[in-house]
């Protein structure tokens, strides 16, 4: 038999795979990843640090982008003196602590405003952003943009602003380190702790013990952007966690599950060997014996299903090769020289008519039962203990998401204000087409008069909603953020700023995508931005506008945070709602459930591979061979039997083909023997001669057929 063919390899592979799953189950199921602190808390601190790093990077990028946008607006206006340029920038934006105008060709300082800005290292051809130390030691982001006049003169507008860490909650401290590991900025109740500073600077480990408390450290790198290159900054957050949040191993569960699977694997192997492998090997040997012409001994195969039926057909063919006809068999039985075959019992008849597929189905059922029972055995135990810190972290991250919504709205108001002020009011309508593409979150940008009539527009056509009543709520000369509709297919929010003397308003409509990206953070779960009525206006996943978010399940971390803190968002009443299923966390109980599900899937995959291999390469050809053997035993000598594989089934097929050729080449059967003479004294002698003649005729037929 070939190395990878036959009935043995699938059975051996199935046993090997199931034993491997047993070993994996014993090492993973019930094994807790917790060490000193629950892994769920460690993961949430890492997510908070990444959120803070992304918020810091977005703040730096926004500061640099605002400078470039402001310079672009100044280029469209008339020529101004360097001092007037700085005055316009200071009026439009209040985020920069220092401003300067430098001649791009000579590097000479033309005007400055606010704190001192180090001007060394400026590249007039590729102005960018860099990090410098301020007068108080705090780091500053220095951004530069090139202002090109119509007369060909070039000036560099340089602005410096502080690094502002996002607000931290729950007694959490934040540290910013540079590429050399030095702490450049720190905030929070433990900002001055030398031990924590050293642990943050080391960059190794995420848990530090101090007495009966632990400090969990999360880290996140500040990403680069189109205007701010990679500054090599890392944000680290530190939060104190009490002892007792870790969960120990439950080794007995893993060992019990592995032992049960090992018992199932041995039982499955025994069933396959007992009812498939051993009968098929015996059938292979018996078929070869009959094909060689060894016809004295009846075919004896203890089998069921297809193997039993093929064995019965092989026994019939053996008798045909011996030349036993129905008449001769009846005569021998009548004289007592041939016994009747014992009658099959009901159980044997059922086994004879059955199929070996039932054995495979039983094996698959055993493995599937274990695979289903293993996850269900520990299902529902995950919510027994949830560390309070995990719930606090979810609330803190929800509040941080609300703060990001507030900053997005505030930046929109600031950008619109810069457009209104840097274009001197009267030319606002001329710059809309240039300003809107630089802000991907703006759906449309338009200028309206006192009556709400649109004077100039850029972007998508405004939706059919009642803007006049909404804009009428804005106080003259004031700024606001409005929710323009309470129903419809697309929620629309808008920022409104006055233009000139306040008789006109500049309106920027925001798409839901402006908030969807802000709500999307790793490990936060499902999050929604809802209006005062609790209807959805944005989400980090697909949503139906103005529907209520689903109620949180029993095993869910749910949190709500109000969008507040800026004058522009007063009266909105927006809230951020988050739902994080506990199964998404790395709590020890849920880790055990996931490991159990993995072991169950691997066991099912092993069963599919081993049993499927056995079905395709053994049982399916065996069923086809069963049909061919029954036809051959019934007298069909014309159909050639071809072996499918070079294995046990193929060997039986080749033996049946040799038998078919022997039967096809055998002479026609002899006529029936004459009846015995009437003389009683001559009857024994006549019977003896008849038996000898019959035996000689049978042996001649067998030898001639075998020779052919």
TrEMBL record:
Organism field: Streptomyces coacervatus
UniProt biased composition (Low complexity): 699-708
Protein name (database record): HAMP domain-containing protein
Domain of life: Bacteria
Spans through the membrane: 255-273, 356-377
SUPFAM superfamilies named among the record's database cross-references: HAMP domain-like
Region spans: Disordered: 663-708
Domain HAMP: 274-326, 616-668
Keywords: Membrane, Transmembrane, Transmembrane helix
Biased composition (Pro residues): 668-677
Bias (Basic and acidic residues) ranges: 678-697
């Amino acid at each position: 038999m070939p190395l990878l063919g036959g009935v043995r390899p699938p059975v051996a592979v199935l046993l090997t795979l199931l034993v491997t799953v047993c070993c994996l189950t014993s090492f993973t199921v019930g094994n807790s990843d917790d060490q000193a602190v629950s892994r769920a808390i460690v993961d949430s601190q890492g997510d908070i640090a990444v959120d803070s790093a992304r918020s810091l990077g977005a703040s730096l990028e926004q500061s640099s982008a605002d400078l470039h946008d402001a310079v672009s607006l100044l280029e469209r206006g008339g020529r101004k003196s360097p001092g007037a340029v700085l005055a316009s920038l200071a009026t439009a934006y209040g985020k920069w602590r220092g401003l300067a105008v430098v001649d791009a060709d000579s590097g000479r300082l033309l005007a400055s405003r606010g704190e001192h800005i180090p001007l060394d290292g400026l590249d007039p051809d590729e102005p960018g952003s860099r990090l410098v130390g301020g007068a108080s030691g705090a780091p500053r982001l220095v951004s530069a943009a090139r202002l090109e006049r119509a007369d060909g003169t070039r000036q560099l507008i340089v602005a410096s602003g502080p690094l502002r860490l996002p607000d931290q909650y729950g007694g959490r401290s934040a540290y910013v380190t540079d590429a050399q590991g030095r702490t450049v900025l720190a905030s929070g109740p433990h900002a001055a702790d030398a031990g924590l500073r050293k642990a943050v600077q080391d960059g190794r480990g995420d848990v530090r013990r101090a007495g009966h408390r632990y400090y969990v450290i999360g880290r996140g790198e500040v990403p680069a952007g189109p205007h701010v290159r990679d500054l090599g900054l890392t944000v680290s957050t530190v939060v104190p966690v009490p002892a007792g949040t870790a969960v120990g191993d439950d080794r007995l569960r893993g060992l019990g599950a592995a032992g049960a699977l090992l018992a199932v694997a041995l039982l499955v192997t025994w069933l396959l060997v007992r009812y498939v492998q051993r009968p098929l090997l015996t059938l292979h040997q018996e078929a070869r014996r009959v094909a060689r012409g060894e016809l004295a001994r009846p075919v004896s195969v203890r089998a069921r299903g297809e193997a039993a039926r093929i064995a019965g057909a092989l026994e019939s063919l053996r008798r045909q090769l011996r030349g036993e006809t129905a008449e001769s068999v009846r005569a021998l039985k009548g004289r007592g020289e041939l016994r009747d075959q014992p009658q099959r019992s009901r159980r044997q008849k059922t086994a004879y008519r059955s199929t070996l597929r039932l054995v495979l189905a039983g094996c698959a059922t055993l493995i599937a039962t274990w695979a289903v029972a293993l996850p269900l055995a520990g299902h529902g135990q995950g919510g027994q203990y949830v560390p309070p810190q995990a719930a606090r972290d979810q609330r803190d991250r929800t509040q941080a998401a609300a703060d990001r919504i507030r900053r997005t709205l505030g930046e929109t108001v600031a950008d619109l204000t810069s457009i209104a002020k840097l274009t001197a009011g009267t030319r606002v309508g001329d710059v809309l087409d240039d300003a809107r593409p630089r802000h991907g979150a703006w759906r449309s940008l338009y200028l309206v008069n006192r009556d709400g009539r649109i004077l100039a527009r850029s972007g998508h056509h405004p939706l059919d909603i009642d803007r006049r009543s909404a804009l009428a709520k804005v106080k003259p000369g004031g700024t606001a953020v409005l929710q323009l509709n309470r129903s419809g297919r697309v929620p629309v929010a808008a920022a409104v700023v006055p233009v000139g003397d306040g008789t006109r308003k500049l309106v920027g409509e925001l798409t839901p995508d402006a908030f969807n990206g802000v709500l999307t953070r790793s490990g936060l779960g499902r999050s929604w931005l809802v209006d005062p009525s609790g209807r959805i206006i944005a989400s980090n996943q697909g949503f139906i506008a103005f529907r209520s978010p689903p109620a949180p399940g029993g095993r869910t971390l749910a949190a709500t945070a109000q969008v507040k803190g800026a004058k522009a968002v007063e009266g909105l009443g927006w809230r951020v709602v988050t739902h994080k299923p506990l199964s998404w966390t790395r709590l020890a109980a849920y880790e055990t459930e996931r490991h159990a599900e993995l072991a169950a899937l691997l066991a099912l995959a092993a069963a599919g591979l081993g049993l499927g291999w056995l079905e395709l390469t053994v049982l399916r050809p065996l069923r086809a061979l069963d049909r061919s053997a029954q036809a051959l035993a019934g007298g069909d000598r014309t159909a050639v039997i071809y072996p499918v594989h070079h294995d046990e089934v193929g060997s039986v097929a080749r033996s049946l083909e040799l038998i078919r050729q022997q039967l096809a080449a055998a002479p026609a059967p002899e006529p029936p023997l004459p009846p015995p003479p009437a003389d009683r004294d001559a009857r024994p002698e006549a019977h003896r001669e008849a038996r000898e003649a019959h035996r000689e005729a049978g042996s001649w037929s067998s030898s001639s057929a075998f020779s052919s």
